[in-house]
Sequence to fold (249 residues):
Amino acid sequence: MTDLIAESIVREVTHAGTVTGYRRPLVGCASAADPRFPQLQRIVEPTHRLPEDMLPGARAVVAFFVPFADWVVEANARDRSRVAREWPVAYLETNALIGRITGNLIDALAEHGVRAAAAPATHNYDPASLICRWSHKSVAVIAGLGSFGLHRMVITDAGCAGRFGSLVVDRDLELAPVAPKERCLHFLDGSCHECVSRCPVNALSMDGSLDKQLCNRRLLGLAKLHGSESVADARGKCAIGPCSLASAF
Fold:
């Protein structure tokens, strides 16, 4: 069943039919009973949902990462002050792609007698606090896909430039043990803070804090300035650096 899910995700990304290009997606799994899920209600948000909240009878959680093609990242790296058109396009197209992936997986798994549920790729957060009640990034870390960086994004073997999705199923899946590994150079040895220096509004700090409201106001301002295509909660400058396309370790 794990292979069926992974192969389906790879196939969907390979034949996405989008303007945005992608690299090979990463897929990881975790038990719905993993003790780190309840910890998210303390670390992320008291109302953060558990796998059982997403799907009564949940047995496993699947997380996947859809990494942007090199040229998408390179386009947004050319100008520190302006967001490249390719970035919001990638954000919007990839969110839609993730919706198709999870929707098709839910239908395909149902044919095998497996129930599944998923949350949207984005806008599943509290509008006041801007905190997610189902954090795809946190789920990805639990599923062994990577670790959080100073920029509050997850650094995977394919870097941090891309989008995450996840799925809860009521079937046990094969779990491959993954040893925790620090992937952020700043947390490892203090040698990098590229994400902090690239943030145009200083929403990121060296102590790891993030002013989400400040970041969001900047994004809303860009949306008004550039029109509907840029009504994407993405600027991506903090995703440009040594961890964009690969993990350093």
